[in-house]
Specification:
Elements lengths: L1 H10 L4 E5 L26 H4 L2 H6 L1 H17 L4 H11 L3 E6 L5 H5 L4 E3 L2 E8 L6 E3 L4 H5 L4 E2 L6 E6 L9 H10 L2 E5 L20 E5 L12 E3 L3 H8 L4
Parallel strand pairs: 1-2, 1-8, 2-3, 8-9, 9-10
Antiparallel strand pairs: 4-5, 4-7, 6-7
This protein binds carba-nicotinamide-adenine-dinucleotide.
Amino acid sequence: MSYDKLMDMILNSNYIVVLSGAGISTAADIPDFRGPYGFYNDPNVKAESVFDINEFKNDPSIHAKHFADFYAKMVDANPTKGHLMLKKIEDMGKLKSVITQNIDGLHQKAGSSNVIEVHGNIREYVCLNSPHHRVNSKDIEDKIKNGEVIKCTECDGTMKASIVFFGEHVQDLEKALTEIQKADLILVLGTSLTVYPVAGLPEYRKDHTKLVIINDQETSYDYDADLVLRDKIDTIVEKLGLVK
Ligand code: CNA
């Protein structure tokens, strides 16, 4: 019944905007943060500090050590059925943009054309001394996968992946907000909606805009949604039948 309702909502919309999180990529074997098998539930990792900019400046080796495996998983992953379904909805002329908190690049790998990466991405490393000192991650991949701290070849500063750490500003927030305000349907997929300011973006939607939340755990915005599907994303894909 809810799946039929979701399908109707998709078919009756003309400007769908997606807000995605780590949960859309768990089926590609990339752990999320707050799900039951997430990074935050790993007793061997002090997860909060691994992605904290002040901790990183203090001692980048802790981040480098823990990021190695995570990076390898992301860079070698293929898009999930969830990513492919979104591309399909774009091809139907319905979906106009994907705002993602993810850094793994899988929406682009699936072919989505308008992806707003509010938490950055892993494609480049940037020097802490100068935003102009950049290197393509592919060129230093062995070092990243070995858990080494990356040093800038221009000034010997410390480099970090161009992802947004806790304590840093999110990227393209204005662009994301503009999309939210253009939307007639917002699909939120695989995010715990706990990381701000991105979690609050759907609150800025227009009065007529419908909100759907698809997540296997409860979120604090469920009360505000027109439809909540507390399922695995793969289950939704299967029920909608848009991707085999
Ligand atoms: P989160 O806080 O870990 O939440 C993910 C949510 O998805 C949880 O509520 C899970 O229960 C749910 N979930 C997991 N798998 C599925 C599934 N198959 N179907 C349905 N629901 C599922 O992650 P958020 O994205 O909300 O938090 C934002 C952080 C996480 C951003 O800064 C990201 O950069 C960061 N992150 C990104 C990746 C990635 O790029 N793949 C991976 C891990 C963390």
